[in-house]
């Protein structure tokens, strides 16, 4: 979705992450229609499987052209999806298994109950959720302990701080934060050209369009001044900010190349002071982003936005 990737470089990037001490690999069975799971299998071929936590999202439906056709989280679909995931990954278990989105046609209790049976059978170690609201989190947790919620969280996307994050903390549920760079906006490398010129999916996202993009890049420029004062990149500052929101929050890093990974990992050693955090808040206040994080049809499908 971000353009072409080189297979050998992708595997080398995973190896570099593992060598650097990264222990969590997050994927979805619909990433590349199964390709990403097979990539991880190849990368782990000569590695110790037990040293890696593999988190998998399921349920999103795709067609051969790469289109999206909703979600299927029926109990039968849960078992079917996991069977194919285990084969593609070349493993006998998944460490964290989670529906990618809430299926409005299936009660969350039914989906979680089906995964719970797979936990009892030894095929799944833990159950997670993704992009759901506080009420759904509580309903799911009542069926089986939920260990983790995966949800977008960044300087430009902070809505979870209102209800969702407090609910997770009340129940002892961790958060894996994706989109910590807001799909590249907070990388510090996005210039003013329209996303359509890059030929990837961001052309359809409101934050990358017209006046929204101009406004958001001003926020990035303000953040750049804070980063330069600390001698770090905008990317590192944005990742470090997410990491500093609590030990129960793990930033997810998307990297196709080793140099991207190396820059991101530099955030792990960045300690932010109270003054740093105040300057970051002044540069990018909560709610400052222009435009929704997804196109309107996708926003309407997110349980976390209700």
Automatic annotation (TrEMBL):
It comes from Gandjariella thermophila. Coiled coil: none annotated. InterPro entries: Aldo-Keto_reductase, NAD(P)_OxRdtase_dom_sf, NADP_OxRdtase_dom. The keyword Transmembrane does not apply. Gene3D superfamilies: NADP-dependent oxidoreductase domain (3.20.20.100). It comes from the Bacteria. Residues 3-283 form the NADP-dependent oxidoreductase domain. Pfam families: Aldo_ket_red. Keywords: Oxidoreductase. One of its GO terms (cellular component) is cytoplasm. This is Aldo/keto reductase. GO terms for molecular function: oxidoreductase activity.
